[in-house]
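Exercise 4. Each item below gives a protein and its sequence. For each, produce the structure-token representation.

Item: DUF4064 domain-containing protein (Pullulanibacillus pueri).
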Amino acid sequence: MKRTGEFILSIIALIINGLSLLGGLSFKKLSTNTLEDQLQTSGTELSKQDIHDMVAAMNHLGSYLIILASISIILAIIALVCLQGNKKPKLAGLFLIIAAVSSIITVVPFILYLIAGILALIKRPKGNRY
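Answer:
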């Protein structure tokens, strides 16, 4: 049985998760002092503490994105290997659903992984009706 649908959905979600990983890395790469200076010169009426808190929140968000995107990318790659050649579709479905849960902050990969995982779990070979 071909698993083309699950494979394509997983690859699209994998690419989007890779982009969110790059976004998380760019959040972490931003220099705290440079970002604080830019926020102060932008003309906003924020105090130093507010600006510092905002920059700290962006750093935490970057760390969160990096960790979750890395976990879901690894799980998706393992699931793709299990799907290849229809070796272990149930295990692949489980990995895809776990990848969906770990990428819940990015909505599109969450939906794509979830659909692919459910498809991998419920699709049966043509010979087995029940």
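Check: The mean pLDDT is 84.
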